[in-house]
Each structure stands twice: as C-alpha cells, then as structure tokens.
Amino acid sequence: MLDREGYRPNVGIVILNSHNEVFWGKRVGQHSWQFPQGGIQHGESPEQAMYRELHEEVGLLPEHVQIIGRTRDWLRYDVPEEFLRRQQTSKNHRASYRGQKQIWFLLRLVGSDSDIHLRASEHPEFDAWRWAPFWIQLDSVIDFKREVYQLALSELARYLSRGMRMQQLAWGSPLDLFQSLYGSEEDEPSETKPTDKP
After folding, report:
1. Which residue of 21, 98, 123, 168 has the fewest C-beta atoms within 10 A of its own C-beta?
2. Residues 48, 154: Cα–Cα separation, whole Å
C-alpha cells in the first residue's frame, strides 16, 4: 500500500525501560541495529499497526506497555536504489516505491524483560536485543535511516524532559546527564509535566 508519492505507511516503535533506556534489536543475520518497525496494513490505524508489530517483532502485548506519546506527523525516508533492486522483483513496483513514511510511538515497558520474545512470529526480525541510552550514537543504524531516527528521537524527547532543554544536549549524551543538569521529571511543576497525549 503506497501513497501517491510512493511512500509506504509504516510505524516505528521506541520502547523505554524504567531507566529511560531504549530497546535496540539486531536484525537477523546482520550487524545493523534498529528500533522495531513495520508496515501499516489496509484498514489498520497507526496504533493498531504498532501493537501488531510490537507483538510480531518483540513478543510484547498491549498490557506490557504504556503509550507515552507519538510523533505529530509522518517522518519519511527514501530507500536507496541498490536496496530496492535487491528487495523488489517487479520493475514497475520498484519505479513507484520510494521509501517509508512513519508515525513513531514512544512506549514505556511496564512488564519485565522476560516478556520480550524475539521469536513470537514465524519470521523473526531480530536475533538479539539490548537496552541502550536514549541518545545513543546512531552509527550502527543503516545510513539511510539515521536522519529519521534523529528526527523521531528529538521529537519524542519532549515527553521525557522540560521544554526543549533535552534536545540541546550533544547527540549521544546519556539521559542521566540531562537529569543531573536539569533535575528529574519528579522535580517539575505539575503544570509543565508532559501528558500522555501528543
């Protein structure tokens, strides 16, 4: 399912643990790491697609997570031609498909690490996983996705911090550095705390 510009609707998922570390999955048989993501099927809302992909790729159910927020609009990336040639067999399809447009969700894991199962589906996406700092360096992400990862993390950071201060940190700074500089979420006045809605 492509839009008129050749982008496939997709969801990206950032999962936080209690330390505000993010879930990273290593793609099966590759040395690249990424967040869970997947296409939105016909008739699905982005939230429905997110829950389906969350279970298929990570094994988590809705009761294992809490939605903290989502990006306001679609974030897009183009897939390079050499990848399209490898993945597509139809020349016409290859010519019309440009890449992905994504709604990104920020989730809090309210279950435990033991709830994560990478083989919940017959075709696993990941063969390993780990927790990493929110502002992790993105050099292990395939290069054509890095910009959209930066955009997604920067926008979703507003749910974790006061105002724009967190976005002013150098990329790769650990979240605890922000908290030591500016205080924790618990120190915020109640009227400035982020809500569950974007």
Report:
1. 123
2. 24
